[in-house]
Write a structure and sequence with these properties.
By secondary structure, this protein is an all-beta fold. The protein is built from two helices and 59 strands. Among the domains are: 139 residues, Jelly Rolls (Sandwich); 143 residues, no CATH class.
Length: 736
């Protein structure tokens, strides 16, 4: 038997569910309401500070969707929506007026929490209801009366010009063989117009402008048109509904006349429409246009609605005005592929508004966020809408689209894709490739954190988290299991993932059944591609009913909680230091307020003559079973389990700590050791007494028969840097 000792250099790596013998010394059996930091040690988690009561009459089990608008450092809003209403609050609790000229019909759904998604672009916040199928509103335009244009393109000596209506000649003119003035195209058109008026009667309206003649039938019946001339049918051009080439149209025409340009083999542009747009003098130009009856528009009632912050500080919730088809027809400028389908996500990427539906990703025109139709059908523009589908052997219904660096990550239930486009995102540069293939749980939207993207997975009744990144040396895409050592720790399915790059943290909210509302916390630290910290723990919020929402802005977490019929907003400072509240005091109570009367379950504490109230919460850390370990080749950890380890005593090193207690449990026998702060002689009356040092207590137990838990249920801070233990070790072969 020999006296042995060991140190635990830090308590920074959170919970592990591996066998205790293979855990790192810095990993724990359990960690609750503690903040793991390589820099400052293991601390009691920061308190939450009460900001506002947002709703005082909420249903106990109300289904809410909550979205945070971070407009700028001075303007931040909380949006709370259910299936019948939408409210907007400031972070101080002020409720802002929301006008709803079209009501709340778009919010109708059985589950707002899962069915709503949102994205904020400047002063526009789009709310998407995934349960509603999109549609178009058919054209209600009145069809134009049947009409045609006869264009005298060229005048020549002794040439015949003939116009046939319904295969009957209705006008003809032969030019002089000698008189030059007779060859003017306007003169020829005048002669033909006079005959057409005389021969066609009152059911036709004949109009001439220059060398062009407009023939309109007023009774709605159709007619046929044919023209002939003795110049190879190149001098008199008749057009009804369409022309072969744009050059066949008269330079001057009539306001509102539309023609389809069919095109030929020598032209890349075909099957497009033009309309003559003229002023009061009939001077005008041909502009690309839309086919008759093709001016359908996206039904705004079925698309994401907009919540707009108005200049006067109020808000308006209403359908958005989506730009209608303005050129082409249902084939050349087809409806976006999401029509008739339910949208699964809405996002903003590289100056385009985007949505996903089934297997397709659809982007608006560049810089034209409300237009999903092309500007022209004569050519493909770099700014045109983009509509592409993923390709895979499995059915890959896309659930989420996450901007990631210069690419877009697309998530289906079993496969992950990457949409890339090089320097610019255009219809000709866009491409989608499969990147990884992991089953995922996509109720919680994946989130980016610098060069990483986190997404959730399912493990029966527990959740996992994968960490997606591009490996620098191989440029390959990898999604490592961030919960590899805690496979059955996160209860339920993940409902929300929230990251904070300032403090290198990931929060996971779930639908699991907990004694009190619980958030799972992943604290990580990397340097030069190496993981220095991978710490899982959980934060509990006693005296609360539910965590409704979490958002993190800079280094401040904003929690939306429900307590009874009240929905409250609280903030929590996540910085490594200093460990203080907005009041400048170290008071560790949730829903912390100064100078208020305590509510039920709240306590009061006084520091430096100032009173504070809030809900108490307990920090606890349970050490892993201790083993005799040594360092092997390459820095590996070697655990000696061949002998018997009898622990003698344990020492905690603490810093800037007020109070805590240690509980040991040995074969059902519990012992508690209290640390009550510094000696009385150095306590400043009326202040929080903080001190640094070490705290030693006995164990006198075999290593695998004792559990050690350090806890702090006081309103005062505690920070633990490291630990040490001594004991006796005996090998099976005899004494050492």
């Amino acid at each position: 038997m020999a006296l042995v000792s060991s140190s635990i250099p830090n308590l920074a790596n959170g919970v592990s569910q591996q066998a205790p013998s293979v855990r790192l010394n810095s990993q724990a059996e359990e960690q609750v309401n503690a903040f793991s930091s390589i820099i400052s040690g293991l601390r009691k988690r920061p308190p939450s500070q009460h900001l506002a009561t947002l709703v005082s009459n909420a249903q106990a089990n109300g289904n809410f969707f909550i979205h945070t608008i971070n407009r700028d450092i001075t303007e931040r809003y909380i949006v709370i929506a259910d299936n019948t209403s939408l409210k907007v609050f400031g972070f101080d609790g002020t409720e802002y007026s929301v006008s709803t000229p079209s009501g709340y019909s778009y919010l109708a759904t059985g589950n707002p929490f899962t069915d709503f998604k949102s994205v904020t672009i400047a002063d526009f916040t789009f709310i998407l209801n995934k349960s509603i199928s999109t549609s178009v509103i058919a054209s209600t335009s009145t069809p134009a009366h049947p009409e045609a244009i006869v264009h005298v393109k060229q005048g020549n000596y002794a040439q015949d010009y003939k116009v046939f209506i319904d295969n009957t000649q209705r006008a003809s003119y032969t030019t002089s063989a000698t008189e030059k003035s007779d060859l003017k195209t306007n003169n020829i058109a005048t002669q033909l117009t006079s005959q057409l008026i005389s021969n066609l009667g009152s059911v036709y309206t004949i109009t001439r402008y220059g060398s062009a003649i407009r023939i309109q039938r007023t009774d709605g019946n159709d007619f046929t048109l044919r023209t002939e001339d003795s110049f190879g049918n190149a001098a008199l051009i008749g057009s009804k509904g369409s022309v072969q080439r744009f050059s066949e149209l008269p330079r001057r025409a009539f306001n509102g006349v539309k023609m389809k340009v069919i095109g030929d083999e020598t032209s890349e542009a075909d099957n497009y429409y033009v309309e003559y747009v003229a002023d009061d003098t009939a001077e005008g130009i041909w502009k690309e246009s839309i086919a008759e009856g093709a001016d359908s528009t996206i039904n705004a009632a079925t698309m994401p609605w907009k919540l707009v912050r108005n200049a006067n500080g109020t808000f308006t919730f209403s359908p958005n005005e989506w730009i209608s088809r303005s050129v082409g027809d249902e084939i050349s400028a087809s409806d976006p592929s999401f029509i008739g389908k339910k949208l699964n996500d809405i996002f903003f990427h590289r100056n385009r508004l985007g949505v996903i539906a089934d297997e397709n990703v659809i982007f608006s025109r560049s810089g034209e966020y409300f237009s999903f139709y092309p500007e022209t059908v004569t050519t493909v523009l770099a700014t045109d809408p983009i509509d592409v589908a993923v390709s895979h052997t499995k059915v890959s219904i896309l659930r989420h689209a996450i901007p990631f660096n210069e690419t877009l990550l697309l998530f289906s239930d079993q496969t992950q894709f990457m949409l890339s486009a090089g320097d610019s995102l255009t219809p000709e540069t866009v491409s989608i490739n499969q990147t990884t293939e992991y089953e995922s749980s996509l109720q919680a939207e994946p989130v980016g954190a610098g060069e990483y993207v986190y997404f959730a997975t399912n493990r029966e009744d527990f959740a996992g988290v994968r960490e997606f990144f591009v490996q620098a040396d191989t440029a390959s895409n990898i999604a490592l299991d961030a919960t590899l050592n805690v496979p059955r720790y996160i209860k339920g399915k993940a409902t929300s993932l929230v990251t904070n790059t300032n403090e290198d943290m990931l929060f996971v909210l779930t639908d699991g059944v907990h004694t009190v509302p619980t958030a799972y916390v992943y604290k990580y630290l990397r340097r030069d591609g190496q993981a220095l910290q991978m710490s899982w723990s959980k934060w509990e919020f006693p005296y609360s009913d539910r965590i409704l929402n979490l958002s993190v802005i800079e280094s401040t977490a904003f929690w939306v909680l429900q307590r009874g019929s009240s929905i409250v907003l609280e903030k929590m400072q996540l910085q490594e230091s200093p460990e203080i509240t907005a009041t400048g005091k170290m008071v560790f109570l949730d829903a912390l307020e100064s100078g208020s009367t305590p509510a039920a379950n709240q306590i009061t504490t006084t520091i430096d003559g100032e009173s504070f109230v809030g809900y108490p919460y307990t920090m606890s850390y349970t050490f892993s079973t201790q083993y005799k370990k040594s360092v092997g080749a390459g820095g590996s950890q070697l655990t000696d389990t061949s002998g018997r380890l009898q622990l003698r005593n344990f020492k905690l090193l603490y810093q800037n700590t007020g109070m805590f207690k240690v509980t040991t449990l040995t074969q059902g026998i519990e012992h508690t050791y209290h640390f009550s702060g510094p000696p009385l002689g150095i306590i400043k009356v009326g202040s929080v007494a903080l001190t640094s040092g070490d705290f030693e207590f006995p164990l006198l137990s075999k290593n695998d028969r004792v559990s050690i838990t350090v806890s702090n249920d006081t309103p005062y801070p505690s920070t633990f840097q490291s630990a040490e233990w001594t004991g006796y070790y005996t090998t099976k072969s005899g004494r050492i």
